[in-house]
Amino acid sequence: MADKRNKINLDDYENEILEAYENGKLKPSTAETDFQTVARNTMVKNRKINIRISENDLSAFFQFFCFFLRYFAVCQDEIGIK
Fold first, then answer.
1. Is residue 40's pLDDT more than 50?
2. Whole-model pTM above 0.70?
3. Which of 31, 37, 38, 64 has the smallest set of CB atoms within 10 Å of its CB?
4. 18 exposed, middle or buried (CB, 10 Å; 0-12, 13-18, 19+)?
5. What is the mean pLDDT of the chain?
């Protein structure tokens, strides 16, 4: 693993983590998290707000949002999320 350190610039904190891993001081987590449920719950609509925004800013927001949706759809296809 020493040759990997020469290729990748790690800061002190990252080096500390890497050394702990290499020395067997890190243990795997026993917590089982259902990440799909967590992701769904973050998108749950639970509050309503009103925002005043200029037409130009709203247009830019929609352009960004549409790009994000197209990008996410492509990523879903690549990794097999339905």
1. yes
2. no
3. 31
4. middle
5. 78
Sign of CA dihedral 39, 44, 46, 49: positive
How many degrees, rounded to 5, is the angle at CA 30 between CA 39 and CA 8? 75
pLDDT digits (tens, 9 = 90+) for 49-78: 888 999 899 888 888 888 887 777 655 555
Which residues, at least 6 apart from 10, have a Cβ–Cβ distance to it below 8 Å?
18
* Cα gap 62→45, rounded to integer Å: 19
Nearest residue to 16 (alpha-carbon basis) of 26, 3, 6, 8: 26
Sign of CA dihedral 36, 62, 57, 50: negative
